[in-house]
């Protein structure tokens, strides 16, 4: 691969999307070839995903498979071609999101890992670590209503969406702890200011990736 892949992971509310967007703007301003891809955003799969969620038709296995299909579509249409073309590809969530969420829904951990085994490992993965209660308070403060699957209501954790969301996110956080031990991403203390986190992220990227290789050539 000529390109470089940088992924961010973390609980909802951890600030990872803000951080990866700031990285994107930094690299763009500095003149680097960069592209951002987001979880569950394939145009091809979106309608099927929306229909399945709306009608509550998805079992844990089909839920996992449909998100993997979304990932595979974006990977083959966006991520892989751009890596081959020498871009820095930024991923707002990568395979570790599936490892955490699908396992909480009851899928076998090794089965999920095998399912995503076609994906190239990220050159750098950042995990934004935030205490569960802080992450929950951020999300609940900004959401007038939690969505059914977002709250983990399909798992029958609690009839109350807020309590279900709390239990669901707690289980996901526990899975992320296992993932950190297994894959050793760069852990960022997400209780720090946005500016401090971004400073650390940029420093690590500059140390580990030869950014000069990805600067856009100016035609004269």
List strands and helices in order, with pairings:
Layout: E1 4-10, H1 16-29, E2 34-38, H2 43-54, H3 60-84, E3 88-92, H4 95-104, H5 109-115, E4 124-129, H6 132-142, H7 161-183, E5 186-189, H8 194-208
Parallel strand pairs: 1-3, 1-4, 2-3, 4-5
Helix pairs in contact: 1-8, 2-3, 4-7, 6-7
Q: Quick gist of this model?
A:
The chain has 220 residues and is of the alpha/beta class.
Structural key phrases:
single chain, 220 residues, alpha/beta, Rossmann fold, 5-stranded parallel sheet, 5 strands, 53% helix, 12% strand, globular
Describe the structure.
- By secondary structure, the chain is of the alpha/beta class.
- It has one domain: Rossmann fold (3-Layer(aba) Sandwich).
- It contains eight helices and five strands, in the order βαβααβααβααβα.
- A five-stranded parallel beta sheet has the order 2-3-1-4-5, sandwiched between helices.
- α2 packs antiparallel against α3, α4 packs across α7 and α6 packs across α7.
- The radius of gyration is 18 Å and the shape is globular.
- It starts with a strand and ends in a 12-residue tail after the last helix.
- The model has no long low-confidence stretch (mean pLDDT 92).
Count of discrete structural domains: 1
CATH topology: Rossmann fold
Counting helices, strands and paired strands, the structural category is alpha/beta
Q: Can you summarize the main beta sheet?
A: 5 strands, parallel
What sort of overall outline do the alpha carbons produce when their principal axes are compared? globular
CATH class: Alpha Beta
Order of helices and strands: EHEHHEHHEHHEH
Give me the count of strands: 5
**Fraction in helix:** 40-55%
Unreliable stretches: none
Distance between the termini: 28 Å
- Assembly state: single chain
How would you name the CATH homologous superfamily? Answer: P-loop containing nucleotide triphosphate hydrolases
Query: In DSSP terms, counting alpha (H) and pi (I) runs of 4 or more, how many helices?
Result: 8
Strand fraction band? 5-15%
Rg value: 18 Å
Enumerate the strands of the largest sheet in spatial order, edge to edge or round the barrel: 2-3-1-4-5
Please name the CATH architecture.
Answer: 3-Layer(aba) Sandwich
């Amino acid at each position: 691969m000529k390109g470089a892949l940088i992924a961010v992971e973390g609980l909802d509310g951890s600030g990872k999307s803000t951080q990866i967007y700031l990285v994107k703007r930094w690299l763009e301003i500095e003149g680097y070839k960069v592209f951002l891809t987001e979880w569950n955003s394939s145009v091809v799969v979106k309608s099927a995903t929306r229909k399945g969620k709306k009608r509550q038709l998805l079992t844990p296995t089909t839920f996992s498979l449909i998100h993997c299909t979304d990932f595979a579509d974006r990977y083959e249409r966006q991520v892989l071609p751009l890596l081959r073309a020498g871009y820095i590809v930024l991923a707002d969530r990568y395979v570790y999101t599936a490892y955490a969420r699908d396992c909480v829904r009851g899928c076998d951990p090794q089965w999920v890992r095998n399912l995503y085994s076609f994906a190239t490992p990220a050159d750098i993965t950042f995990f934004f670590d935030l205490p569960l209660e802080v992450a929950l308070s951020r999300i609940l403060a900004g959401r007038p209503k939690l969505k059914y699957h977002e709250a983990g209501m399909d798992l029958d954790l609690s009839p109350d969406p807020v309590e279900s969301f709390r239990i669901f996110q707690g289980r996901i956080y526990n899975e992320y702890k296992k993932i950190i031990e297994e894959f050793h991403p760069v852990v960022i203390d997400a209780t720090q200011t946005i500016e401090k986190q971004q400073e650390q992220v940029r420093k690590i990227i500059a140390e580990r990736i030869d950014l000069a290789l990805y600067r856009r050539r100016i035609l004269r």
